[in-house]
Amino acid sequence: MVFDDIDKKLLEYLQNDSKQTNKELSNKLNLSVTAVYERIRKLEREGVINGYVAQINKEKIDKAFVVFCHVKLVQHAQDYVIKFENEVAGLNEVLECYHVSGDYDYLLKVIVKDMAAFREFMVKKLTSINHIGSTHSMFVINEVKHATAINF
User: Fold this and answer.
1) Which residues form the domain of 23?
2) What does pTM read for this prediction?
3) What averages of pLDDT result for each successive group of 10 residues across the chain (152 residues)?
4) Number of structural domains found in the chain
5) 74 and 28 in a common domain
6) Which of 91, 86, 83, 141 minimizes the C-alpha distance to 115?
């Protein structure tokens, strides 16, 4: 899909505040409300916009302990990979999971209340998944940058 300057600006505005009305966006873009509506619908239909979310303050909900966890499988057999990915997808503590290159096979972003909750997650949930060979965890000391907007 080819994006013109208006599409790029529209996406920028929506990423910064998706609760803006079409009227507000039309004023910023110097377009009619209908034109803005149609552009948004097209971006949604094309799969450029996957959805809309609220960003939650982790501290306010007592889930500020963030851990990046590397996971290595014992083998790279297709059934091991599929089983691991399906089971990890069902773990609420895992916000993100990436199949990566390098010494480990997966990188998980885990969010829990504290160290005790992370230990419980590791012992009762993550390491109970079959075919995990090893894990390596890194605890976040300070979040320096957290962005969700993709720049053009």
Assistant:
1) 5-45
2) 0.89
3) 93 96 97 97 97 95 97 93 96 98 97 98 95 96 95 88
4) 2
5) no
6) 141
